[in-house]
Structures are given as structure tokens and as C-alpha cells.
User: Fold this.
Amino acid sequence: MNAGALRRLSGLLRKESLQIWRDPSALAIAFLLPAVLLLIFGYGVSLDARNVPIALVVQRPGALAASFTSQFARSPFFRPRRFLTIQDAERAMTAQLVQGIVWLPSDFARRAEAGGSSPIGVIVNGVDANDARIIEGYVQQVWATWLTARAQAAGGGAALPLSVAPQVRFNQAVDSRDYLVPGLIAVIMTLTGALLTALVIAREWERGTMEALMVTRVTMREILLAKLIPYFVLGMGGMAASVAIAVLLFGVPLEGSVWVLTAASGLFMLTALGMGLVISSIARNQFVAGQIAIITTFLPAFLLSGFVFDINSMPRVVQIITHIVAARYFVAILQSVFLAGNVWSVILPNAFALAVMAAIFLGLARAITHKRLD
Amino acid sequence: MPDTDPGPAVRLAGVRRRFHAGKRVVTALDGITAEAARGAVTGLVGPDGAGKTTLMRLIAGLLRADAGRIEVLGIDVARDPLSVQARLGYMPQRFGLYEDLSVAENLDLYADLQGVSPDRRPARYAELLHMTGLGPFTGRMAGRLSGGMKQKLGLACTLVHPPDLLLLDEPTVGVDPVSRRELWQIIDHLTREAQVTVLFSTAYLDEAERCDSVLLLHEGQLLGHGPPGQFTAEMAGRSFLATASLGRRRLQARLAAMPGVIDAVIQGSRVRVITAEAVPPVAAGLFAEAPDLVFTPTPPRFEDSFVARLRARDGLAPPALPTPARPLAGEGGVTGDVIVVARLTRRFGAFVAVDDVSFTVARGEIFGLLGANGAGKSTTFRMLCGLLPPTSGTLRVAGFDLRGAAASARGRIGYMAQKFSLYGDLSVAQNLRFFSSAYRLTGAHQRARVAWAETEFELGPMRDATARDLPLGFKQRLALACALMHEPDILFLDEPTSGVDPLARREFWRRINALAEQGVTVLVTTHFMEEAEYCDRLVIMAQGAVLAAGEPEAIKQGARTAAQPDPTMEDAFIAVIEAAQAPAQAA
Assistant:
């Protein structure tokens, strides 16, 4: 790069920095948007069920039934309500007052004491399939705990044919927020990065300044670099703020190294900014640029990155499509770095994929941006 | 750098360029062959849609031509745009300024981009700031400059590195006449002192006369090419001013229908007449109603030649008189002043957009608000329509106080917005139907009004065309028809003829005159000095305040000096603004 090119680039960089400082919209996209989205999704999206209202129907009260129901009252997952008949409980479930019904039939105690199986009825509101499965699992857990306690009290170990000892790795608290927030950061940063470059270049088109820039000696490479460098810095600032919110506010552990996190974020930010540059060469007004950025970056990242919807359970075709969603690789890296540590077997291939995507998008942006209006 | 090539600065050979707008193909430039001489000011003159901006962009290497060849300073632009751009200064339509950078920061940026070394900057900046008068404002944000100052800063930025060729795309549109005059002084200075070649595009036909050479463009075609004197010389002996004791609008209508007359427009209290041949029209006994009719020869203007060329090309017969007047719906409703504005003020925070404005408009009068962009015309208009509450002052329209009964007043108003506000995706007939139902017309009455609009405005053949695809002149006609659907007795026109060609403008004013004759009160805003001539009375506004009010002739006479025995409206405007600034500077 010769002296003239350096002077042009530094002039453009100074202009861009002054604009960022004076026009709060870029700062808002870099810092405010991730913070707000992180707070909304972080507090709003949770896959845990706690204090689930549940109906208990005990047709023939007795000591045995009481010991079983008290197990529900002690559980942090349930908020039990007593109903006298199964019909009342069903009405309550229809009215969405309770999410499920646990029904102890009249022969519950008799069959249990006879040593045989003692069936209980469990009805779960299946409208939200995910919640339903979780509730079902919790109920079984409570039931198993109760059976074990009873067997031990009886002095024998014969009541249960096998015992399950769950062991959880990489997210010891089994808190879905710890798992969601890192993925969420990837999704939000996709949007932020793409919006930063797409909107500021669209703004230059709208205000007619791009036309004036183009008729100087400046080259398109210099214009693109002058957009990439300041918004990379800004985007990484937003990334740092998001990590700080995740660790300090949501208490997500950061098991891996900060340097790995920074390097991976840098690669990902280049990809997102590159997508923004590509969008900006198609959309020349801020409204359209914003729409395209949301549809082509945020939605695929949200749905296809595996941050909440497991990629392995998607149809084959959709699984293949997820490979072109850059957020997918970043989600994998973030979940590993936050929850498991520096797992190189996860980080290296995904980082490589990110580097390839960054090269593709930046190269594409360079190839389709001409120093012409048509 | 001195050039060994003595050829022209710009050489165009068979330049053609089309654009695709949806399914439609628009020919922006249709085989243009012309040259622009070195060291001269060449004007690209024509109405909106003539192809001026496209030609500028082609010359700057921002667009590629579909056919033909463009040589700039001896370089083929298509082959080597960067070399051309290194020697160009180009000011696009909105001046290409960063509004959130200061004057000095904008200059620094363009100095960096044009490779001006830091040691040469102080001297160059001093020169440019002196030339543009921006010296005291270097720290001010570009967005907070007035239109005229932005224009000068945009020019200074393109001149940071002295260019060999300067391209200015409509630099004077919407800018006040004082800044316009100053810009021309700068351009004269540049061509004389620095031998810069200037290409200047404009829709103001009077600016053509200031250029050394003119390319007259219309709908992508070159209608003429040569020094402006050549254009006016063709018109020698064909321009006259007619005076008679008849009302000037009636006189104009009569003269326009006369055989042998290709153009008749109101100019002050007189009517300007252009004849097809260089033979003076015989006044004696022409009209029984005007026995005192006199024709005085007058020097031809550039616009006369444009009109003559358009008439020759299109073979248009002079427009027929409008169909007989319909009786006015609001007849006998309000007498005397239809619009009363008293001590009207509107503030936006600390900014005073309209400052203590008062005027009245009588029934059947055409009243103008004349001023540059940012003078407060549109804000005044919005308050008159009841769209914006005034900060203080009174507003009465058709007898209704707009503070209390804005809706009732609005029912009596027809409003034609700037840029026409039509629904581009709807057809002509659908637009008419929509606007008539918006004005609550239904059934037979609505059908009758739509039919009336289609005949009266000659929209019938275009009724199924999409509004977006209409030529500008038709859009303007349709917009006027839409504003008249509910037979309003007051008509508000916001910059109605900005950018349309002279024939469409004449056509438009012929209709407005006819409406005024029927008793419709017309309020019009314009930054077009010539258009002020059509008004019965007008106010000149600048920075929110009224600087002068009265009949156009009286305002012009006020600017009369020994040096300027017959001032134009523009001269008058400049005199009024300078008179207003003088006490401020003395204080």
C-alpha cells in the first residue's frame, strides 16, 4: 500500500470514527441492541420447569398416600394443589390452572402394600410438548425417589429392579440458561455484525455521499477496509459487553480461556461484518438493508445454529443447510468455551469453518462491490 | 499539469444509456453526440428526466454507457475511470457532504481522498474558505449550514485538489438567489483564473444564458447544442410583450389561442408572446374587448427558444381554451378574504421556522409564497392545512379558525403536495377513484367527477396506465385532478411545477388561471422566481420571515435602480434580501 492509499484510508477511518462518536445509532447497534436482546431472551427463554402447578387427586387418603404426596410438596419443581375428584382436576387443567394431574386411584395403598405394582395415573398437558416431557420426567423422578425411600425404610433393596444414578457433565447445575446464553450471544452477534456494516453503507447511499466518494481516487478496497476496521472494533466491544452480561449477570461459568474466546469471536465478527457488506451492495437504503439483515442472518442463526433446536434431530436436508449458517460453528465454540473449557477437538474444526466463511463473505463483498452505480 | 492534447475536455459520440425500471425500459440518453470545450462553462440544460444526471455520471465513470464512446480529457472513461477520476471534481446533487462532520473535517476528508499533502493544505484551505465565505464557520457541522452554505462547502470539497474538469450536478436547485449568484461568481473566477473546465447541469433555463455553451436535453435527446447566444439569435424578432386594459389572465388566454402565436405567458402585468415567424402580430382590431392592445418587441430569452424547439418537434397546436367553467360549489359562501394569516409563528425547540408572518388572500386570487428551501414556506403551508398547530398567531381559512375547526376547513381545501403524492402502483383511474372516495364522494356523483377529471385533464387515454410510469407532466395533471375531486374553493399547491418542462408548466398554469377566473382561491409555494410572475400577489420569505409583500410588478419596481432599469424577479429577490441583511450588519 503506497503513501496515497494510506492517507486515504486514514482519512476514511478518521471520518468513520467521528461519525460513530457523533451519531449514536452505530453505538446503539453495537452495545444497546445486544444488551437488550440478551436480557429479553436470557430472562424470557428458559427450558427449565420450576414451580409447575400440578393437581393431586387422592381418592382414598391414607398414610401411604400422604407420604407420596408430601414428596411433591417438597419438590422444587412442583406446586401441588389438591382436588377431590378427577373431574375437578380435569376442569382445572382445561382452564390452564394446572399443567398436569397425578391421580392416586382408590386401590393405590392396597396394591402397594400387597407388594405388587401400584399404578398411579399421570395426565400431562401436552400443548407444549417440551414442557410436557420435562414434567413427565420430573414426576417419574419424584415417584422413583419415593419408591426408593420406601424400600430403604422397609429394610430391603428389592423394591426396585434397577436404580438410576444420573450424572451430569459440562453443566453441573443443569440450568438451561447456562446453556442458552452462550448460544444466544452467537445469534445476537450475527445480527449486530451484519447490521453495523449494512446500515452504515446504506446510509452513505441514501445521503448521496457514496457517489461523491466514488469520484475521488479512493479504491473500493479502501472503502471496504475503512468500513470493516472501525466496525470490527465496535462489534468486538459489543461482544465483550455481552460476555460480561453473561458471566456477571446470568452467572454463566466461563470454563475456557478468554484468548480462545476472543480469537473465535474475531473470526466470527469478520464473517458477520462480511455478510453486512454483501447485503449493503444489494440494498441501498437503510430500511431494506435492515430487513434483509434480519431475515438472512438473525432468523437462520436463531433456528439453524443449534443454539436451542438440536441440529441432530432436524431432517437431513435441513441439517445440510445448517452448514452454511456461520452461527452454527460459533455456537459450538461458545458452548464449549463457556461450559466445558478449551476442548480443542471442538474448537479447531469449528474455528476453521468460521475462517472459511469469513474468507467467503469478505471475498464475495469485494467481488460484487464495484466503483460504479450500476 | 499542462495538456498536450488540444482537443475538447469532453467528447461524446453516440452515447446511449437505458435503465430497467421493473418491466419498463427507460431510455435516459438516446445517442448523444456533443463536445465540451476546455476552459469553458458548458451547461447541461433541461427539465427533470432529460438525462442530465445520467450524463454526468457517465462522464464521471460511475455508469457505463450501453453504446457510444465518452472521452474525458483525452481518456476513454470506460477503459480507465480511475485516471479520469483523479483529475475530476464532482459535486453530486446533495453536495456529497457528511452532515455530522464539521466544515474543516469535511475538507480534511476530501483532501485525504484526493491526495493533497498536509503542507499544501493551509494555503489551499485559506483560498477556498475565502472564496466561499465559509471562513467563520469551519467548526460548524455541515448539517447545520444553510442550503447555500452547504452548496459552497460541497464545491470547496471538490476543489481541494484543483481539478481539470469540474462536474456540478444541479448545484443551484432550491438554493436562494443570493447564493446562486455567488456560486456563479465563483465559477466565473475558476474558469478565468484557473482555466478549469466546468460542466454545470440545471433545470433553470435562465442559467443557460450564463454558460459559454449549452447542451439542451429533453427526454434523453439533444434538442440543441451551441452558445446560448445562438439559441436566442434564432428567436430574433419573435418575442413581444403585450399590454392591454384587459385582465392579464384573460389577455393571455386570448393570445395563446391566436394563430401564429406559439407561446403566451404572463410576465408581470404584461403577456409575453412568441410568434412562429419573425413577423410582429397586428394589434389593431384583434380583440374587440381590448382595443388598446399594444405589442412591444422584447429581447428573446433562452426559454423562448426551448419552447419553440419543443413546438417544432412535437408539432403541438397551441393549447385550446379550457372547457366552459363549471359554477363554483362554494359560490356566495365567503366574501372578501378567504385566507387570513395574522402574526403566525412556529417554533421547533429553539429554531424559529416561521416568524411573525401575516398576509391575507382574497377570493379568486393567486397568491404566492416565494423563497428558497428552508425559508419556512412548507411549514406555513402545513399550518394552513391544519396539519401542524401554530405556536402563536391566528389562521382563518374559508371562515374557519384552524385551531378549532381544522377538519371543516380542510373539506374546503384541495391540496397538491410536492412530488405529487400519488399512489404509484395504482392506475390513473384507481387514483382518481381513491382520492374521490377519500373526499367522501359516492355513487353517481363520484362517477361524474371521475369522468369530469378524465375529460378535463385529458387523462382518458391514460386511464389504465400505472401512475408511477406516467411522464412528469401527466403526473402533475393527475395530482391536480385528484386535488380537485371534491370541488374545493381553495387550492394549495406546494412547489407544483418544480422540474417539469416549460410546456407542461404552461399547461398547468393555464388550468390554474382558469380555476382562479372561476373564483377558486389559489395559494402556491415556489422557489422558481419566474413562477412568481403568475401570481396576483406574493410574499418573499427568508429564514421564516416575510421580507416583502405585494404585486409582482410592485416588488420588481422596488428593486429598480439606474444600473437595473428593468429588474427581474430574481434581481428583486436579491435586493430584498440584501436590504434585510444591511441593518443587521450595521448593528
Summary: Confidence is low (pLDDT under 50) at residues 323-334 of chain B. The interface with chain A takes residues 57, 60-64, 81-82, 85-86, 88, 90-101, 105, 108-115, 154, 157-158, 167 of chain B (CB under 8 Å). Residues 234-314 of chain B form one domain.
